[in-house]
Amino acid sequence: MLNRIVIAAAAIMMTAPLAVAGPIDSACVRSDRARGNAPLCGCIQQVANQTLSRSDQRRAASFFRNPNQAQEVRMSKSNADNAFWARYKRFAGQAEAYCR
Q1: Which positions carry the signal peptide feature in this UniProt record (predicted)?
Q2: For 74, what's the count of Cα atoms within 13 Å in the CB-facing half-sphere?
Q3: Is residue 5 part of a domain?
Q4: CA–CA gap between residue 31 and residue 65 (Å, rounded)
Q5: Is 6 part of any domain?
Q6: What is the chain's pLDDT, residue by residue, as a tens digit (100 residues)?
Q7: For the chain, what is the domain count?
Q8: Model-level pTM?
Q9: d(Cα 50, Cα 28) in Å, to the nearest integer?
Q10: Residue 61, in any domain of the structure
């Protein structure tokens, strides 16, 4: 009985939308490419919450407003930018797989 309750609670928590939108969700909903697809944007935010720090999320959200900035970070020779880009690529791959 207890196992069923725990499983049900976990299922509800995993499928419930976030109460507070994060920076990626907000930027995604406002972007032209997402066309206001709130469920997709919420899914992407959930993956971001699991894989990126809040500061990385804010930086990644800026790519929605300025996609050229992502290219600049990707091409940067800075160790900090390279480390961020590795985290961002890992996040993007996981979001793509999870949020189909």
Answers
A1: 1-21
A2: 9
A3: no
A4: 7
A5: no
A6: 544 444 444 444 454 454 468 999 999 999 888 777 999 999 999 999 999 999 999 999 999 999 999 999 999 999 999 999 999 999 999 999 999 8
A7: 1
A8: 0.76
A9: 17
A10: yes
